[in-house]
Amino acid sequence: MSTADIHYAFFSPPLLIMHLMCREGYGEIRQLISALVERYSQAMNSGGHELPLFPKTGNRMKRARARHKPCALKELEVSVSELGLGYESDETVLFRYCSGTCDAAVRNYDLSLKSVRSRKKIRKEKVRARPCCRPLSYDDDVSFLDAYNRYYTVNELSAKECGCV
């Protein structure tokens, strides 16, 4: 049995099942399994990589999984200066934000918009053909002292509830 035959038999399950079902194919199946086990052993002993039968999850898969996390409320402790609103202050606040995907919330509008855009009917406007994870409501106002001891209050700073809009 050639390497091509082994590859074909291994990657085409109907042929493999047919061989298993008839007695004449038993020897070939044994040969196939022996060849695969030998190839795996050689790869492992030579310091090579694992065979594709046992794939490792790489960074690409981790990123792909991260993109499919549902819309949710997250929080992070940051200084007021890090908020980027122009205030100089060392005070810290608990900043709650929305993060995640909204695939489950796709509506007919989103599907139609995507179709019209793909047909180049809408060109220059920046439109999104899917819902976005955004705050549905905000926490109470946040007050703080800046570096010059001035008192400020900022509203709608931190998300209270997130949803797909």
From TrEMBL:
Q: What is its main location?
A: secreted
Question: Where in the numbering of this chain does the TGF-beta family profile domain appear?
Answer: 60-165
Top-rank taxon = Eukaryota
Per UniProt, what is one GO molecular function of this protein?
A: glial cell-derived neurotrophic factor receptor binding
Presence of the UniProt keyword Kinase in the record: no
What SMART domains does this protein's entry cite? TGFB
Compartments, record wording: Secreted
Q: Which GO terms describe its biological process?
A: glial cell-derived neurotrophic factor receptor signaling pathway; nervous system development
User: GO CC terms on record?
Assistant: extracellular region
Q: Name one Pfam family in it.
A: TGF_beta
The keyword Secreted appears for this protein: yes
The UniProt keywords, alphabetically, are: Disulfide bond, Growth factor, Secreted, Signal
What job does the chain carry out?
A: Growth factor that supports the survival of sympathetic neurons in culture. May regulate the development and maintenance of the CNS. Involved in the development of the neural crest. Might control the size of non-neuronal cell population such as haemopoietic cells. Acts by binding to its coreceptor, GFRA2, leading to autophosphorylation and activation of the RET receptor. Heparan sulfate-binding is required for signaling.
Record note on quaternary structure: Homodimer; disulfide-linked. Interacts with GFRA2 coreceptor and RET: forms a 2:2:2 ternary complex composed of NRTN ligand, GFRA2 and RET receptor. Also forms a 4:4:4 tetrameric complex composed of 4 copies of NRTN ligand, GFRA2 and RET receptor, which prevents endocytosis of RET.
Q: Give the family from UniProt.
A: Belongs to the TGF-beta family. GDNF subfamily.
Protein name (database record): Neurturin
